[in-house]
Specification:
It is a single chain. By secondary structure, the chain is of the alpha+beta class. It is built from four helices and four strands. It has helices at about 10, 15, 35-55, 80-95; strands spanning about 20-25, 25-35, 60-65, 65-70. The protein has a four-stranded antiparallel beta sheet with strand order 1-2-4-3, covered by helices on one side.
């Protein structure tokens, strides 16, 4: 099944599905803070392996113990189910 951009009603549901993420235009955004650079970088390594397995990669940055993640489907020019799936999988990597 081909991946399609999320419509307005699907986007409005994201705050319930992904409460720790915010919708900023055509991207999902999340800022994370860890206890140390090593923990932040270790998390990024886990996300990198996950993203590679899904062939869907984040735009992100890291400064010391902080990681900022933006998800969008570049080929579609906006948000898709791929972004929702990757955001959920990223959340699952974090301790409860």
């Amino acid at each position: 099944m081909p991946v399609k951009r999320l419509d307005a009603s699907q986007k409005s549901e994201l705050s319930t599905l992904l409460p720790d993420w915010s919708v900023k235009g055509e991207r999902l955004h999340r800022d994370l803070k860890f206890k140390s650079f090593v923990q932040a970088f270790g998390f990024m390594a886990q996300v990198a392996l996950l993203a590679e397995s899904k062939n869907h990669h984040p735009n992100w940055s890291n400064v010391y113990n902080r990681v900022s993640i933006d998800l969008t489907t570049h080929d579609l020019g906006g948000l898709s189910s791929l972004d929702v799936e990757l955001a959920s999988a990223i959340d699952a990597l974090l301790p409860a």
